[in-house]
C-alpha cells in the first residue's frame, strides 16, 4: 500500500525518497544511505476473520427485521470473503436462553439453511448471549490463533433474562479484559422519544464502538462491519 519504517522487505522508491528528503548525496553512481532511510512495505492484510453476530431476537416485528438484516449481511460477507476464508457465526438472544443458530462457518449454503425461519419473541437474555459469544471466540482462538475476531451486537442494550443488566455488564467487561475480539454495537433502540442509551453503555463496556443506523439493512450492516 505504501512505504513505512519497519515494513515488509525493502520498499526501494520509499527508501530513496526518504534519503533524498534527508539530503543524501550521490557519490559517483552510488546513493549514500543510512539506516534511518530504510523503508519497508505496508501490505493490505488478507488475514481471515471470524465475525460473531449477537442478535436481540426478542419482540416481534423489530426482531424479525434484525434477523433478516443479519441473514442478508452474512450471505453478502461470505460471498465477498472466499479468498480470505472468513467465518461467520450468529447467536440469537431470545426466550430463556440464547442459542447458537449458526456455528462458525464459511459456507453460504449452511448459513442460508440455518438462518431460515428463526423464531422471535420472549425475554432478552443479553448477558447470557454475550457469554456464549465469549466462549465461542475463545474456542475458535485456540483452534486458529491467527484468525481475527469481531463481535457485532444488534441490541438496544436491554437485558431482561435471568442474569439481568448486571449479567450483560459483567460479560462485556470479561470480553474486553480478554481482548480476543474487536466489538461494535448496532443500536437497535429505534423510534422512541426517550432513549435509555444502554447500547452506547454496552459498547463502552466492551471497549468497542456504538453505531446508530437510520435504516437497518443487510447492506448497511455489511458496510459497518467492513469499516471496522
Topology:
Elements: E1 2-4, H1 12-22, E2 26-27, E3 30-31, E4 40-42, E5 49-56, H2 61-80, E6 87-93, E7 99-105, H3 108-115, H4 126-143, E8 148-155, H5 164-178, E9 181-187, H6 198-206, E10 209-211, H7 218-227
Parallel strand pairs: 5-6, 5-8, 8-9, 9-10
Antiparallel strand pairs: 1-4, 2-3, 6-7
Helix pairs in contact: 2-3, 2-7, 4-5, 5-6
Care to give the gist of this entry?
The chain is of the alpha/beta class and 228 residues long. Helices cover 40% and strands 22% of the residues.
- Give the class-level CATH name of the largest domain: Alpha Beta
> In which order are the strands of the major sheet placed?
7-6-5-8-9-10
Q: Please, how many domains?
A: 2
The CATH homologous superfamily of the largest domain: von Willebrand factor, type A domain
How many helices?
A: 7
Radius of gyration using CA atoms only: 22 Å
Q: Measure the end-to-end span.
A: 18 Å
- Binned, the helix content reads 25-40%
Proportion in β-strands: 15-25%
Q: What's the main sheet like?
A: 6 strands, mixed
User: Could you tell me the mean pLDDT?
Assistant: 85
Strand tally, please? 10
Task: Catalogue the unreliable spans.
Answer: none
Fold-level CATH name of the largest domain = Rossmann fold
Q: Name the overall outline.
A: elongated
Order of helical and strand elements: EHEEEEHEEHHEHEHEH
Work out the oligomeric state of the chains in this entry. Answer: single chain
Amino acid at each position: 500500500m505504501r512505504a513505512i519504517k519497519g515494513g515488509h522487505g525493502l520498499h526501494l522508491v520509499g527508501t530513496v525518497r526518504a534519503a533524498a528528503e534527508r539530503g543524501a548525496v550521490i557519490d559517483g553512481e552510488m546513493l549514500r544511505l543510512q539506516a534511518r532511510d530504510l523503508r519497508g512495505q505496508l501490505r493490505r492484510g488478507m488475514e481471515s476473520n471470524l465475525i460473531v453476530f449477537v442478535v436481540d431476537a426478542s419482540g416481534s416485528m423489530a426482531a424479525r427485521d434484525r434477523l433478516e438484516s443479519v441473514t442478508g449481511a452474512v450471505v453478502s460477507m461470505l460471498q465477498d470473503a472466499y479468498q480470505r476464508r472468513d467465518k461467520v457465526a450468529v447467536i440469537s438472544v431470545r426466550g430463556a436462553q440464547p442459542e447458537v443458530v449458526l456455528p462458525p462457518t464459511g459456507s453460504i449454503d449452511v448459513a442460508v439453511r440455518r438462518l431460515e425461519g428463526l423464531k422471535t419473541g420472549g425475554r432478552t437474555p443479553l448477558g447470557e448471549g454475550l457469554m456464549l459469544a465469549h466462549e465461542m471466540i475463545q474456542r475458535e482462538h485456540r483452534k486458529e490463533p491467527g484468525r481475527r475476531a469481531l463481535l457485532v451486537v444488534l441490541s438496544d442494550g436491554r437485558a431482561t433474562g435471568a442474569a439481568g443488566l448486571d449479567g450483560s455488564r459483567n460479560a462485556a467487561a470479561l470480553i474486553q479484559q480478554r481482548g480476543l475480539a474487536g466489538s461494535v454495537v448496532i443500536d437497535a433502540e429505534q423510534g422512541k422519544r426517550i432513549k435509555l442509551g444502554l447500547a452506547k453503555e454496552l459498547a463502552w463496556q466492551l471497549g468497542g464502538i456504538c453505531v446508530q443506523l437510520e435504516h437497518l439493512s443487510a447492506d448497511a450492516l455489511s458496510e459497518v462491519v467492513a469499516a471496522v
